[in-house]
Amino acid sequence: MAPARRIGASDSKTRARLVDAAEQLVLEEGHASVTSRRVGSRAGLKHQLVHYYFQSMDDLFVEVFRRRAEENLARVERILAGEVNLRTLWELNADPGGTIFSIEFVAMARHHKGIRAEVARYAERYRAAQLRAMASALETSGVPARQLPPVVALLLMTGLSQVLSLEEALGIKAGHTETRSFVTTLIDGLEPDNRVPGGGGRQ
Amino acid sequence: MAPARRIGASDSKTRARLVDAAEQLVLEEGHASVTSRRVGSRAGLKHQLVHYYFQSMDDLFVEVFRRRAEENLARVERILAGEVNLRTLWELNADPGGTIFSIEFVAMARHHKGIRAEVARYAERYRAAQLRAMASALETSGVPARQLPPVVALLLMTGLSQVLSLEEALGIKAGHTETRSFVTTLIDGLEPDNRVPGGGGRQ
DNA sequence: GTCTATACTTCGATAGAC
DNA sequence: GTCTATCGAAGTATAGAC
Question: CA-CA distance, A24 to A131, in Å (whole number)?
Answer without folding.
Answer: 31
